[in-house]
Request: fold
Amino acid sequence: MMPNDASHKLIPMTDFVIEYYSNEGYADLQTLNLMKNYANFLRHPLTLALFVPVDPNGNVLKEPKNYSSWKSLKHNEVLSDDTPAVSGFEEYNVYKKAEQNCFFEGFKVAYNGYSVVRITSSYDESIELSCNKNDSKFQTFTDIESLTVFDEIYLSPTALKMIGIKRK
Reply:
């Protein structure tokens, strides 16, 4: 999945403050709230669920067969808690709901071993992260802010909503 033109990249807090302040020209209450939300977002500890769909126990979910085709159907675009499960498609609904909880776009499982899950970015293969299944901790990275060392990590609609950024 390639991010679209309206995608927002993960950036360091200083860049975020400068970018939003320079666009507004002054720091109104809404801008200050956005900055506070982004700072809290950056402090969020990393979990596998932020990158790829996982079950309630933190285990990586396997993408259902023909999921892309199923997801592209108009009536499957919006999924909410009150969406009735269509018999035979529970697996698709579970996967889509877990996918909607991810904060980052375009990550895929490159390796799912006994004790380690390795994920990569579909838009930049050099972005590779490893998560220890035993303690659910990432090697090298601890929180979202630590990921700002990468040039390209795209935020999902869920992350943007959490921060308070409206998509254009």
